[in-house]
Amino acid sequence: MAFLPRKPAIAALLLVATACAAHAQDRDRLPITVEARSTDFDYKNSVLVFNDVSIVQGAVRITAERAQASGLDFEDSGWEFSGTVHIKLVDGELASDSARVRFSKGEIQSATVTGTPATFEQRHEADLAQGHANRIDYDLGRGTVELAGDAWLSDGRNEITGPTLVYSTGTQRVISRQQVVITINPREPEPAPPALPPKKPE
Fold first, then answer.
1. Is 51 a domain residue?
2. Full domain range(s) for residue 38
3. Of 191, 162, 188, whose CA–CA distance to 175 is shortest?
4. d(Cα 96, Cα 65) in Å, to the nearest integer?
5. What is the pTM (predicted TM-score) of this model?
6. Which of 48, 96, 171, 202 could form an S-S bond across to 118 if both were Cys, CB 3.0 to 4.6 Å?
């Protein structure tokens, strides 16, 4: 006759398995380091203010002159950055005057940057996409970058401008529901191979 564990034993085994799985997930996550020249923690209102702040997680880095957050909880928190904001991601970068960043499950989930203008670039193998707009919404979960307000996007040769442009970082597609202007620059002619010297008579 097979041994059947009692319900409390089953519950205990499930708790151990869940804890192990959570621990494995935590090990997969890279630690987050926050450095600042100074900080002001308002315990009463649960508000953190940093000056000359740098947040680093692996290859991801956020720097700004000032940051404000409701706490050091990166599981689900919103941060506001201002003053020369620079966000470096694994394969792209954002730069602006101000930014609002949402952290979820220990990672950046989305970022909205505003400036005059805010800029964006993404490297994909040998290709480089660049853009700027008054506001840029970068949704890392969906892999989309929305450029709104005097939007401009270039693949290094051709350019597209319009009120709002949506760029997919995965498929490298650009979508717009409004009027756009596309500038197609001609390819530079490849240099002709050097002429061979005339053969000397034998």
1. yes
2. 33-183
3. 162
4. 12
5. 0.74
6. 96
